[in-house]
Amino acid sequence: PTPPVEARPGRLSVTRINDLFRDPYAIYASHVLGLNVLDDLDADAGARDRGDIIHKILERFSLEHPPTAKKPMPDNAYGALVAIAREEFDKTDARPAVQAIWYPRFLEVAEWFLTWEAERRTGIRQTFVELKGEHTVALPTREFTLSGIADRIDLLTDGSLAILDYKTGPAPTAKQTTAKFSVQLPLEAAMARDGAFHTDKDGRTIGPPRALTSELAYVELKTGRVVSAVEKNADVMTEADAAMGHMVDLLTLFETEDTPYISRPRPQFLTYDGDYD
């Protein structure tokens, strides 16, 4: 399909840039045709539901128990985290699999997370969670808006930023970032440098100041490990600039009406079926 340029999306999220590169047809089906995926009737909790609940628990813990100079972690941190988890899981009574399977699994994750968090807080000034940001890019024919929601941004003691993404499943590898198959976090680093997460649309401060990012990582909650989004010894901001250049080139290509939205031209590393296959 080759829809007219004016029918093509003028804004996408950082995660959808990955789809535009790997499966353009999915962007065509969802953003041009407006074909949205519906949940099955009486569907039980899936990976997305589980991820949403766990993200909310960790978001609340960071907001309700922020680090201070005198007390990096709250007293009885495990009890505080479990209390939040119990409240969030109790909101899912209509989905029995969540209670029966995912709550006990989260309790296993909680111990590792708190150990990691306690060590991490010795090097951060402030943690920001679920930050929404937008960045405008000038294309040959129009302006394009890139949006993103950062799971977590830490303002480190050296003034740089660390951008983290919580994963309840497998995380992309640094090689996938280098190959431009997964550019979400480098794009967020470029956005943060330009202040996209600093203020909201009304000019109110909501996130860290404009700064360079020194760490990009995925936090694999299921396995209890932190996976760097960039290769060892790679410069984070160099990767950010490369990702932004890749995105602009890709968007410019799709600003030409002759460029088709084909299905899965780059299927490497994909381990799941596409919604529009």
Low-confidence stretches: none
Distance between the termini: 14 Å
| Overall body shape | globular
Beta-strand percent range:
15-25%
Alpha-beta classification: alpha/beta
- The count of strands amounts to 6
Overall mean pLDDT = 91
Write the H/E string, N to C: EHHHHHEEEHHEEH
Regarding quaternary structure, what we see is: single chain
In helices, the fraction of residues equals 25-40%
Largest sheet: 6 strands, mixed
- The number of distinct helices, counting runs of at least 4 residues, comes to 8
| Cα Rg | 20 Å
Structure characterization notes:
The chain is of the alpha/beta class and 277 residues long. It has helices at residues 14-22, 24-32, 47-64, 77-90, 96-120, 174-178, 184-193, 236-253; strands spanning 11-13, 124-138, 143-156, 161-167, 213-220, 225-228. Strands 1, 2, 3, 4, 5 and 6 form a 6-stranded mixed sheet that branches. Helix 1 (14-22) packs across helix 2 (24-32) and helix 4 (77-90) packs antiparallel against helix 5 (96-120).
Which properties best describe this structure?
globular, alpha/beta, 6-stranded mixed sheet, 6 strands, 277 residues
Strand-helix topology:
Layout (H helix, E strand, L loop, with lengths): L10 E3 H9 L1 H9 L14 H18 L12 H14 L5 H25 L3 E15 L4 E14 L4 E7 L6 H5 L5 H10 L19 E8 L4 E4 L7 H18 L24
Parallel strand pairs: 1-3, 4-5
Antiparallel strand pairs: 2-3, 3-4, 5-6
